[in-house]
Amino acid sequence: xxxxxxxxxxxxxxxxxxxxxxxxxxxxxxxxxxxxxxxxxxxxxxxxxxxxxxxxxxxxxxxxxxxxxxxxxxxxxxxxxxxxxxxxxxxxxxxxxxxxxxxxxxxxxxxxxxxxxxxxxxxxxxxxxxxxxxxxxxxxxxxxxxxxxxxxxxxxxxxxxxxxxxxxxxxxxxxxxxxxxxxxxxxxxxxxxxxxxxxxxxxxxxxxxxxxxxxxxxxxxxxxxxxxxxxxxxxxxxxxxxxxxxxxxxxxxxxxxxxxxxxxxxxxxxxxxxxxxxxxxxxxxxxxxxxxxxxxxxxxxxxxxxxxxxxxxxxxxxxxxxxxxxxxxxxxxxxxxx
Length: 338
Ligand code: TYM
Hints:
The protein is mostly helical. It contains 13 helices and five strands.
């Protein structure tokens, strides 16, 4: 049990490596909005993580603005929460190096996201991709964040962050210096699946453009993607237990539940026994109602990069004011000259 006594803080991040989609929104950004009035919150655009796979430099800048605009469009208030770009706060990289010397090779060898992303040809993956979760631990712990809202796919990385914090505290006899951060994963929308395959995560890198609803999709595109979503031929079950072996149906019901604030059972009380010919148009209407206004605002904000640059620069300054004292103390603890 951690006896950490510091303030409760939230940190999370999203990679500027492509368009924001419904999974990012439901798994992460929506939680960012809800948490901002409860905790001191830091929301990062993790550009240093993005370059662990190739990013065209000319596009990276726009993608960074895209993520910042998504935070704002969804309702994160930059006066309440701190929105910034990771490369704008040097302490992330400094702490990541020290954590590289704390984390063990065996721990990183178990990371499933590296295996998924590196594929068969892992010899050609960047070293950064391998050590990616260590930088993620630094992102969190340089703010001594106690809570981290993420989707289900980040669970293993969060466990690694806790292991790194615990080993640092133990090895340097710095009892409770770093908190053991708690993942905030639970809730509907933690794992949104592809619209083309209910067993694969919705992902911006999916080769099928119909697999993923992007926040910037126009209403007619959203409706078309939902109507084309893969399903099975049976009507919807009367209760959630009937979704167990029907991944595509479970995913669509889950999206409806997450966006409407209802449980799967409540959704099925309304639509159970009906076919997808009835359910899909209702789902398409709901997704358009909830997502299209965010997409429109996102596009409006993206058209003003100077404004977004100002938000990020201001955020980076505020973030550094918290991160710099942490890294200074870490250097002292490790025995570096101060
Ligand atoms: P990234 O950029 O891949 O995804 C951003 C957030 O979206 C969530 N997410 C999903 N949630 C539900 N269903 C999906 N299909 C789905 N796809 C993505 C992710 O869980 C994530 O919360 N490693 C992180 C970025 C990161 C970070 C951090 C997160 C870097 N440093 C520090 C938290 C704290 C990532 O790759 O996210």
